From TrEMBL:
Species per Swiss-Prot/TrEMBL record: Flavobacterium procerum
InterPro entries for the chain: A/G_AdeGlyc_MutY, DNA_glycosylase, HhH-GPD_domain, HhH_base_excis_C, HhH_motif, MIG/MutY, MutY_C, NUDIX_hydrolase-like_dom_sf
Name listed for the protein in its UniProt record: Adenine DNA glycosylase
Pfam (any one): HHH
Enzyme Commission identifier(s): 3.2.2.31
Manner of cofactor binding, per the entry note: Binds 1 [4Fe-4S] cluster.
Length: 346
């Protein structure tokens, strides 16, 4: 029995019951694949249900405001995915008459759709024999065939794609692709997999050579940048506050936040107090208090140390926002959690 037959048999006996596996609708498959980039299935599934309920078709998604999409995406992270999702939906709805491209090559032309996502849609929706290569596939193939090529190198993707192409059955590519990803997610896990129960334990080269925990080979991650954010939470005599949209490129683009004072290190009360006076010189400040212990919010390339400072003023904020309306805006999850846990007068 060859590799793909063993793998598919294992998959049919062990696969998880996931909603996007019950359809060949390219819209639903595209949604799920974009959501599951850098995201665990358990975290992504509620978002999948929310989006398919709120936006049953790609045209519904295209017609929605970016702000509404970002609000629904709130907490999923990597918000550029949501913005690209919206732009691609508009392109499909308006330029392609709502019809998804039906081939790997054409799917690759869509904004935010890379080789992996294009291969997933092409195989799951149209049964095109094109292999998916993600972290799970790297891990399974590198261990099974004892491949020591550094998976952090761009050229490595071609090597693994070529190998996967040799293994994929032309008559059943969709199930094979699902199977190899599921095998990596459930059985051939990153740390300490239970090889004693593995269906490949007699043929896996990595296991025979006792190298399972050394594979795949991946060079060190990029350097992490540390940043220090102080959010200045205004509260006027009516209990209203003020927020602003992050319009500059970078993290959290087009999400909302409180006025931000970024520093080189963790700021103390005296520093924030002095700068707040300059920041809000047009208001009369009654009091300033620190609202929380420092929170470290970890992104892929940045660690943000975040403090919130409540600044009560004597004046009334023009176009101030009350607590009820505040919760309707899309925020980075760390700010949203602060708002949820913080009592703001109404």
């Amino acid at each position: 029995m060859n590799f793909h037959n063993i793998l598919i048999k294992w998959y049919l006996q062990n696969k998880r019951d996931l909603p996007w596996r019950k359809t060949t609708n390219p819209y639903h498959i595209w949604l799920s694949e974009i959501m599951l980039q850098q995201t665990r299935v358990a975290q992504g599934m509620p978002y999948f249900f929310s989006f398919t309920k709120e936006f049953p078709t790609v045209k519904n998604l295209a017609d929605a405001s970016e702000e509404k999409i970002l609000k629904l995406w709130q907490g999923l992270g990597y918000y550029s995915r949501a913005r690209n999702l919206h732009k691609t939906a508009q392109f499909i709805a308006n330029d392609l008459n709502g019809v998804f491209p039906d081939s790997y090559k054409e799917l690759l032309k869509l904004k935010g759709v890379g080789e992996y996502t294009a291969a997933a849609i092409a195989s799951f929706s149209y049964n095109e024999a094109v292999p998916v290569v993600d972290g799970n596939v790297f891990r399974v193939l590198s261990r099974y065939f004892d491949i020591e090529t550094d998976i952090a190198l761009p050229a490595t993707k071609k090597e693994f794609t070529a190998l996967a192409k040799e293994l994929i059955p032309a008559d059943n590519p969709a199930v094979f692709n699902q199977a190899i990803m599921e095998f990596g997610a459930l059985q051939c896990v990153p740390k300490n997999p239970d090889c004693t129960i593995c269906v490949f334990n007699e043929s896996c080269a990595g296991l025979q050579k006792k190298k399972v925990n050394q594979l795949p080979v991946k060079s060190k991650k990029v350097k992490i940048t540390n940043r220090y954010f102080n959010y200045l939470v205004l509260e006027d005599v009516l209990g209203n506050t003020f927020i602003q949209k992050r319009t500059s490129k970078g993290i959290w683009h087009n999400l909302y936040e409180f006025p931000l004072l970024e520093t080189d290190n963790i700021a103390d009360f005296d520093f924030v107090s002095q700068n707040a006076q300059q920041f809000f010189s047009h208001y009369t400040i009654n009091s300033i208090e620190k609202c929380n212990d420092s929170v470290v919010h970890k992104l892929s390339h940045q660690h943000l140390t975040i403090q919130f400072w409540k600044i009560k003023i004597k004046d009334i904020i023009e176009n101030g926002i009350d607590a009820e309306k505040l919760k309707t805006f899309p925020f980075p999850i760390v700010i949203y959690n602060f708002i949820e846990n913080m009592e703001i007068k109404t």
